[in-house]
Amino acid sequence: MLNNGQIDKAATEFQKAVELEPRLWQSHFSLGILWEQQGRMDDAVKQYERTLELQPQHILAANNLAWLYAETGSNLEKAWNLAEMAREQYPENPNILDTLGWIYFKTGSYQRALKLFEESIQLSPNTPTLYYHLGRAQEQNRDLVGARISLEKALELNNEFAEADSARIILAALEETPEETEKD
């Protein structure tokens, strides 16, 4: 993993490469990854979009762009199309399944999201974010026991993963909620 100084330096180099050779999709994609790591999501989106203009079937750019669209709640239809395109080529990639599940989650299709999160966990059982997403979908489906189990599993795997604070907040709220397993 690169530290912030290394990321800044690499981003500067890839930005120079993009300026020198704007049709080189690899530089756009790499710059998108670096800017995403820096939290420059709008810039990352532009680079992933440019990557896909130059290389329309680039699965990683499609998945990353779909994820960013889903995170912001913008372009959810386009996000779904990109994630589906990626899934068609790599149907057993847990990251792609997670992205598609998160898009369904964001659109309120919690049952579909559940199935995709469960499938992604089968393929990558030690990824805390997948359990976090499953827990969120279970919570929305009123499977509060399942949500507790999934969120606790996420924290057991890594109590400092990106959504760990959110998982703890949700768990605390679930502790105040009576046991319920009713589903829609």
Describe the structure.
The protein has ten helices and no strands. The protein is mostly helical. Helix content is 75%, strand content 0%.
Give the SSE layout:
Blueprint: H1 4-20, H2 25-37, H3 41-54, H4 59-72, H5 76-89, H6 94-106, H7 110-123, H8 128-140, H9 144-157, H10 164-175
Q: What is the ordering of alpha helices and beta strands? A: HHHHHHHHHH
Oligomer: single chain
Total helix count? 10
Low-pLDDT ranges: none
- The averaged pLDDT comes out at 90
Derived from helix and strand composition plus strand pairing, the structural class reads mainly alpha
Distance from first to last alpha carbon: 42 Å
Main sheet specs: none
Task: Give me the count of strands.
Answer: 0
Report the principal-axis shape: globular
Helicity, as a percent range: over 70%
**Percent of residues in β-strands:** under 5%
Using the CA coordinates, give the radius of gyration: 18 Å
Q: Nutshell version of this structure?
A:
With 184 residues, this protein is mostly helical.
Write a concise keyword list for the protein shown above.
184 residues; 10 helices; globular; mainly alpha; single chain
